[in-house]
Amino acid sequence: MAEQPKCKICRRLGTKLFLKGEKCSSPKCPFLKKDYPPGEQGGRRRRRLSEYGKELREKQKLRHMYNLSENQFRNYVEQVLEGNPENFSESLIRKLEQRLDNVVFRLGLAKSRPQARQLVTHGHFSVNDDQVNVPSRQLEEGDTVAIRSSSEDKKVFKNLESRLKNYEVPGWLKLDRANLEGEVIGTPSLDEISISVKVPTIFEFYSR
């Protein structure tokens, strides 16, 4: 997908999406200083949104959070609708969470989802000991993810062990800090995924 100014995305949508990793949790985060829409016409007050506008905003939040293009995101929504699950919202979040790039991010092996996607694309990770370069690959319980031995000395992974020392992974993942390897040991649920998005409204948006 085309690169966009990540801090402006958060300001436009009115919430922190943590698109730039550690910077988003620091006092230097632009959203803390400018929590209003960007642009000369943005002003310091947000316009009241219509129902359509609210649904669009929630869709954009989740799409940008997982670093997806509109077509990619729509495909996930359509897959969920076609599957007709008991819980549409949880099914969608599960598909997004089980993407390889998201698992790399959730394991703490990348500082953000955009960085995780880039690292996967460049072939720095293996799944079940096989090199992979497809960020959208869906992982299942029992799959293992590791930094390839040929990539361990890369600058991007410098000081990773110390950074992971106090890092907590979600309950559906297990992290071997010594070997910088992770494993999918369960299934992500909506309850344990902390997101400030009203997921049901996304299905209402695409049902129009």
TrEMBL record:
Protein name (record): Uncharacterized protein
Phylogenetic placement of the source organism: Archaea, Methanobacteriati, Methanobacteriota, candidate division MSBL1
GO cellular component terms listed in the entry, alphabetical order: small ribosomal subunit
Transmembrane residue ranges: none
Gene Ontology MF, one: rRNA binding
Superkingdom of origin: Archaea
PROSITE patterns in UniProt: RIBOSOMAL_S4 (PS00632), S4 (PS50889)
Keyword RNA-binding: yes
Keywords, sorted A to Z: Ribonucleoprotein, Ribosomal protein, RNA-binding, rRNA-binding
Protein family: Belongs to the universal ribosomal protein uS4 family.
Domain Small ribosomal subunit protein uS4 N-terminal: start-end pairs: 1-97
Pfam families with a match to the protein in the record: Ribosomal_S4, S4
All copies of domain RNA-binding S4, residue ranges: 98-162
InterPro entries: Ribosomal_uS4, Ribosomal_uS4_bac-type, Ribosomal_uS4_CS, Ribosomal_uS4_N, S4_RNA-bd, S4_RNA-bd_sf
GO BP terms, alphabetized: ribosomal small subunit biogenesis; translation
